[in-house]
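Help needed: design a sequence for this.
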C-alpha cells in the first residue's frame, strides 16, 4: 500500500520569502512542500509542481516548468500558501527517458508522440501523495494554481474543495510548440 509519511520540517529562507519546508517519503520518492503562513482549516493557495531538473534548476526553455515554479513561489512568498514539489521527473518517466523524448522531439515529433514511441503513457504522473500531504497539513479547501483540469477533477473527486486560478507564463520560441501540444492534446487551459 502506498503511504506518504512526514519525515521532517525545517525553516527555508528563499529569495521569494521565508518558508517552512516539509519533507515527505512515499516509498522510494522524496516529496517536499514549501509552506508559508497558516494552513489548518483555512482556504489555502496551492500549487502542485512536478519536478523538472532541466526547467527548474538548469534554466531550460524547452518547457514552462521553471517559470511556473518561480511565479508560484513568488506568489506564495507574498500571499501565503503552499507549493507541493513532487518527486516525479519528466511527467513521471524519469530524467533519462525525458532526454530520450527530447531527442525524438528534435526530429520533429511532439511531446505526446515521443512519449508514446518510448512506450509510455503521455502523462505517467500520479497525484495520490498530494492527498496525503494536504491531509497531513490539515487542508481541505484550496485555491489551486493550475491550467490542468485533471488536477482539479482529481482533488474534487477526493473531497477537496477547489477554486481554480489560472497560471499564465509567456511562451518563448523554444516552448511555443510544447505549450500548443499541451493545449491541443492534453486539454490544458490557457
Ligand atoms: Zn519541465
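Sure. Designed sequence:
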Amino acid at each position: 500500500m502506498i503511504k506518504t509519511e512526514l519525515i521532517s520540517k525545517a525553516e527555508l529562507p528563499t529569495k521569494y520569502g521565508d518558508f517552512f519546508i516539509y519533507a515527505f517519503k512515499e516509498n522510494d520518492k522524496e516529496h517536499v512542500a514549501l509552506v508559508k503562513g497558516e494552513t489548518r482549516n483555512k482556504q489555502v493557495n496551492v500549487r502542485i509542481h512536478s519536478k523538472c531538473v532541466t526547467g527548474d534548476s538548469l534554466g531550460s526553455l524547452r518547457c514552462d516548468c521553471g517559470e511556473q515554479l518561480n511565479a508560484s513561489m513568488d506568489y506564495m512568498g507574498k500571499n501565503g500558501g503552499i507549493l507541493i514539489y513532487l518527486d516525479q521527473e519528466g511527467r513521471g518517466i524519469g530524467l533519462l527517458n525525458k532526454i530520450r523524448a527530447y531527442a525524438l522531439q528534435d526530429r520533429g515529433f511532439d511531446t505526446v508522440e515521443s512519449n508514446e514511441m518510448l512506450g509510455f503513457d503521455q502523462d505517467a504522473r500520479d497525484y495520490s501523495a498530494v492527498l496525503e500531504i494536504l491531509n497531513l497539513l490539515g487542508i481541505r479547501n484550496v485555491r489551486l494554481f493550475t491550467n490542468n483540469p485533471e488536477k482539479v477533477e482529481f482533488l474534487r473527486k477526493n473531497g477537496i474543495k477547489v477554486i481554480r486560478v489560472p497560471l499564465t507564463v509567456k511562451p518563448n520560441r523554444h516552448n511555443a510548440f510544447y505549450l500548443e501540444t499541451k493545449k491541443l492534446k492534453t486539454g490544458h487551459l490557457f
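Residues 9-88+125-165 form a domain with the Rossmann fold fold (CATH 3.40.50.10990).
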